[in-house]
Specification:
This protein is an alpha+beta fold. The chain is 38% helix and 35% strand. The chain contains three helices and four strands. Helix 1 crosses helix 2. The longest helix is centred in the middle third of the chain and has 18 residues, at 51-68.
Length: 97
Amino acid sequence: MAGKALGVMELKSVGVLMQATDIMAKVADIEVADYERIGSAQVAIFIRGEIQACEAAIKAATEFVTKSAKDRFVTSFVIPDPHEKLGLVFRINPDKR
């Protein structure tokens, strides 16, 4: 997945995650790869795209969440050139886009 990245955001609210995902899609050319529910309210979203696009998307969404719903924020990060085996664990396939 040369030049590609995997972005991850984890929050304690499905509604806030929907808003954050909308922001990500509006600010950068990313693909929503999957989401994962973690318990009753915690959820993570996985995005794919070029490294700069994922970084811009995650940054914009993180800024939104930490200003509007900081208590719902858990973590966010970008993995540049993720190993293909991540797709086996998280039901995403980062080597295909």
